[in-house]
Write a sequence for this structure.
């Protein structure tokens, strides 16, 4: 369950009602519970008893100092009761007045005239107003099975909603708990959710497969830990590098995604005509090549860590404990070689085209001064996800657990209050992001083609639909598996003296029991018509989503497909 935060009793004189309303509104905006007679005394109730109950159930009394308030016996009785009963009393001077002697030792907040806005900011930052978070030791690390790999994960908290955190570029779930700020951050999540954290394959405590994994393979990691924790649907929380993966998962698996929260990430890692906030490809490649020659000397050092913190958490750049912790995180999270391979793979990632396919409630967060993820990228991403909510947070820090936490969590909890009850429509449940392979043959009959096509479906986790005399459709949750499948079918056809023409596209498909419909289905069929025997044609959307797969593509100029897909078309030329 959510651990309730403190309740604030607002004590004021009727002449100061307008200011009391502003105080209440400011506290409520930051999800701080209030008690105010105007709103919390039922009609017909006996006022003195209700005031007593309000005082007893509140953790702190905020008194508004003014000439009318200090002249009021009732107001001063409320303040005196707080002092006598060891309740915290915070005074805000909203109009100049002579402070009674018994309150002179209490420091007040100046909220007169133009100081009110600053006073309200001071008020909400008081330690007494911070929500209570559960105190518990670091949870036990367990392992989920994703194919042949072991994925390290932890779960904690018993809130009413499940949240799965997809980490950034490196992680180590046990090292997370060694930094007090990160521990507080995780416990704050646990105050209102059941939280699942994990190390992606190749990082932290999870198995290293010996190569950089594709996005679709990393989607398998998310599903594996959800299955291990018996989580049917979860809020997917993507941070930094985890944003692109979270976007792909939410679009591909809306049945497993209750909502999507993403912060400080990229839709593309290289500059595009409509995406100017990152480096051009040649500059990014040159930067990586320079780094590759020295990273083995600097990775995990205090110098390297300090540079990383200056970029990712400038407000804490002088925190030596944080710098030391982050240096160790680098060493525990990945090797220098894995880090260079990750950077190279990221240059191939581009999820711009799948943003409109997300059909779950989405919250996009970005700090306005973030040096690692420009707020313009957040605006771009949010504008292209149907119904997405964008919250621009104050501050320069990229790391979510550094900087202002109250505004951060207030935005999240407000979003989740609305998302928790949201259920997908029937159309949204049937429409998913998927990759469709259309197979045709000039020298195999429809039955032989269908038999060949079905042989490899299970191996590549696809589902098939025969399309009569015009070919065979196969549906996959990942484009790399789709390309490998098309290659395997072509090889199988050769053993029977036949040839296959393949067209592949990724996009929003409406999946029925015996058919798949939508623009991607039409594009894949048209591409198969244009393909040569034993040729696999795929759009640039497919190519952009198979980063790290080792599949090579050669660009082809097919104007007909450009008009259909608004993207270039590519031929897979390497064995998948």
């Amino acid at each position: 369950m959510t651990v309730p935060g403190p309740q604030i009793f607002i004590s004021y004189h009727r002449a100061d009602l307008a200011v009391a309303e502003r105080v209440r509104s400011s506290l409520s905006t930051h999800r701080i519970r209030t008690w105010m007679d105007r709103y919390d005394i039922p009609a017909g109730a006996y006022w003195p008893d209700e005031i007593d109950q309000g005082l007893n159930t509140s953790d702190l009394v905020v008194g508004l100092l003014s000439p009318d308030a200090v002249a009021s016996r009732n107001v001063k009785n409320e303040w005196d009761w707080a002092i006598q009963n060891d309740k915290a009393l915070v005074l805000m001077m909203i109009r100049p007045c002579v402070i009674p002697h018994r309150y002179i030792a209490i420091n007040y907040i100046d909220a007169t005239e133009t100081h009110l806005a600053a006073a309200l900011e001071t008020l909400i930052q008081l330690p007494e107003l911070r929500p209570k978070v559960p105190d518990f030791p670091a949870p036990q690390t367990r392992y989920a099975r994703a194919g042949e790999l072991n994925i390290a994960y932890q779960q904690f908290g018993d809130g009413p909603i499940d949240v799965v955190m997809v980490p950034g570029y490196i992680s180590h779930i046990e090292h997370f708990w060694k930094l007090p700020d990160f521990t507080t951050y995780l416990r704050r999540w646990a105050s209102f959710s059941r939280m699942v954290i994990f190390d992606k394959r190749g990082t932290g405590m999870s198995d290293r497969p010996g190569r950089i994994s594709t996005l679709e393979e990393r989607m398998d990691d998310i599903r594996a830990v959800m299955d291990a924790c018996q989580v049917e649907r979860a809020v997917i929380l993507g941070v930094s590098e985890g944003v692109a993966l979270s976007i792909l998962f939410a679009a591909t698996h809306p049945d497993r995604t209750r909502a999507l929260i993403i912060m400080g990430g990229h839709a593309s890692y290289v500059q595009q005509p409509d995406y100017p906030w990152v480096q051009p490809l040649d500059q990014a490649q040159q930067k990586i090549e320079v780094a590759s020659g020295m990273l083995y000397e600097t990775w995990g050092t205090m110098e390297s860590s300090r540079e990383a913190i200056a970029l990712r958490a400038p407000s804490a750049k002088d925190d030596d404990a944080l710098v030391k912790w982050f240096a160790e995180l680098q060493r525990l999270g990945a090797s220098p070689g894995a880090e260079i391979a990750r950077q190279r793979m990221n240059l191939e990632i581009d999820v711009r085209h799948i943003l409109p396919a997300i059909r779950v409630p989405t919250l996009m967060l970005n700090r306005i001064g973030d040096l690692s993820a420009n707020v313009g990228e957040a605006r771009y991403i949010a504008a292209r996800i149907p119904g997405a909510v964008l919250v621009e947070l104050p501050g320069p820090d990229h790391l979510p657990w550094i900087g202002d936490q109250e505004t951060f969590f207030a935005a999240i909890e407000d979003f989740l209050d609305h998302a928790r009850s949201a259920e997908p429509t029937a159309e949204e449940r049937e429409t998913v992001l998927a990759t469709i392979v259309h197979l045709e043959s000039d020298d195999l009959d429809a039955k032989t083609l269908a038999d060949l096509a079905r042989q490899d479906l299970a191996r590549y986790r696809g589902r098939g639909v025969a399309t009569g005399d015009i070919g065979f459709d196969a549906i996959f949750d990942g484009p790399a598996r789709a390309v490998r499948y098309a290659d395997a079918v072509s090889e199988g056809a050769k053993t029977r003296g036949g040839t296959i023409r393949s067209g592949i596209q990724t996009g929003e498909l409406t999946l029925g029991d015996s058919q798949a419909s939508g623009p991607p289905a039409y594009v894949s069929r048209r591409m198969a018509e244009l393909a040569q025997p034993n040729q696999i044609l795929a759009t640039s959307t497919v190519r952009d989503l198979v980063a790290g797969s080792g599949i090579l593509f050669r660009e082809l100029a097919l104007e007909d497909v450009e008009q259909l897909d608004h993207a270039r078309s590519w031929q897979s030329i390497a064995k998948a």
The radius of gyration is 29 Å.
